[in-house]
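Lab meeting, item 3. Inverse folding demo.
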């Protein structure tokens, strides 16, 4: 397929058509991507999202710090993968709304020839996909409108941009909680990793169920009519890495994963665990 070398253009006509769609956005029901954007200080959200975000914060005041810590973890993981591990291909599922230091920006600062495929099914993310389709001339970014529940569709579409015979970093940040059943969530991630070659990586983080305030706030959020989110135990989160070789320091609170500056309070953890692992 002929490639358009314009760095801001999607790779093929079907992706261009997708990015030009004007999907319906329901502004009467809070949406996790928009609430997350609100917690990060963004403006791509609606009153219903801000209200839900404030209600969550009243019960669990640490949620905004968790959101920021997740973003910083993403940046550190991508810098390590592009730099120390030499990864040049990234499949970021559950992209969320564009903000500071998106995956392609971090990766291409280290390696301008990096290729990034973003995947999300939120209509507002689709509207803003153009902000994710910028790229260095040497690299490429594309966007797929698809659901985590459909890994085969994701892989088939990603193969138009990524060479799935060469290592790929699968990036899953605060997304698997949307899958209610833990066994099904593990199976989806295994299906995605099984399709990637030896030397690929999983970069992952999600919220843990050990904080009573976070648990209560999440239950309240789930009762609001929004798409539910499910917290998991440390053991269940570690299970996403089964069969993979974890990089040091393993599955840890995300603020403890290779911090770039010493932690001011080494015992103050956010309520999310993460890690990076290599496929044998």
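The presenter then showed the designed sequence:
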């Amino acid at each position: 397929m002929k490639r358009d070398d314009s760095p801001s253009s999607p790779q093929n006509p079907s992706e261009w058509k997708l990015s030009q769609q004007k999907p319906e956005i329901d502004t009467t029901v809070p949406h996790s991507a928009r609430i997350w954007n609100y917690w990060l200080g963004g403006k791509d959200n609606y009153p219903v999202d801000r209200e839900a975000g404030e209600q969550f914060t009243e019960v669990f005041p640490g949620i905004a710090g968790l959101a920021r810590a997740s973003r910083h973890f993403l940046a550190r993981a991508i810098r390590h993968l592009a730099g120390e591990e030499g990864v040049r291909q990234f499949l970021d599922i559950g992209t969320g709304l564009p903000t500071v230091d998106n995956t392609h920006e971090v990766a291409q600062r280290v390696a301008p020839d990096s290729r990034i495929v973003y995947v999300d099914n939120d209509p507002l993310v689709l509207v803003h996909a153009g902000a994710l389709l910028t790229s260095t001339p040497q690299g490429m970014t594309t966007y797929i409108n698809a659901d985590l529940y459909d890994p085969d569709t994701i892989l088939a579409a990603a193969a138009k941009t990524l060479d799935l015979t060469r290592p790929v970093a699968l990036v899953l940040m605060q997304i698997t909680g949307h899958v209610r059943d833990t066994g099904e969530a593990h199976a989806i991630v295994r299906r995605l990793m099984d399709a990637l070659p030896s030397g690929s990586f999983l970069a992952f983080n999600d919220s843990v169920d050990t904080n009573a305030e976070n648990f209560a706030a999440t239950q309240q959020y789930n009762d609001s009519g929004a798409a539910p989110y499910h917290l998991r135990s440390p053991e269940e989160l570690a299970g996403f890495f089964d069969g993979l070789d974890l990089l040091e320091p393993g599955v840890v609170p995300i603020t403890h994963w290779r911090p770039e500056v010493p932690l001011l309070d080494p015992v103050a953890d956010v309520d999310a665990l993460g890690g990076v692992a290599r496929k044998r």
